[in-house]
Automatic annotation (TrEMBL):
SUPFAM superfamilies assigned to the protein according to its UniProt record, in alphabetical order: YfgJ-like
Keywords associated with the record: Ligase
Xref: Pfam families: Zn_ribbon_6
GO molecular function term, any single one: ligase activity
Stated name of the protein: DNA ligase
Entry annotated with the keyword Ligase: yes
InterPro entries given in the database record: DUF1407/YfgJ-like_sf (IPR029037), YfgJ-like (IPR010807)
UniProt KW Flavoprotein keyword: no
Top-level taxon of the source organism: Bacteria
Length: 84
């Protein structure tokens, strides 16, 4: 029950790092106010390396090449990086 609740909150935490507006998904994350597209980058909670996103069966998994293991989504720190 707790996990479902936490996932629901995470889904809505996609806020623009510049203006804190909610980002819109149009194939990438887009801020209508800044008119920027953003990449969502995950960082390893243990070693702070950038995680590799693996798509498997419709679900995204995050793999750390330094730790050589998959990371639990709930512990990953996500950052939005401007693309254009
Ligand atoms: Zn913005
Ligand atoms: Zn790591």
């Amino acid at each position: 029950m707790k996990d479902t609740k936490r996932d629901g909150i995470n889904m809505q935490e996609n806020l623009c790092p510049c203006c804190q507006n909610p980002l819109v998904w149009d194939g990438r994350y887009h801020c209508a106010q800044c008119k920027h597209h953003f990449n969502k980058i995950g960082f390893c909670p243990e070693c702070d390396s950038e995680l590799e996103k693996l798509q498997a069966c419709g679900a995204a998994n995050f793999f750390c090449n330094s730790c050589n293991e998959l990371k639990s989504k709930s512990k990953i720190r996500f950052e939005f990086q401007a693309q254009d």
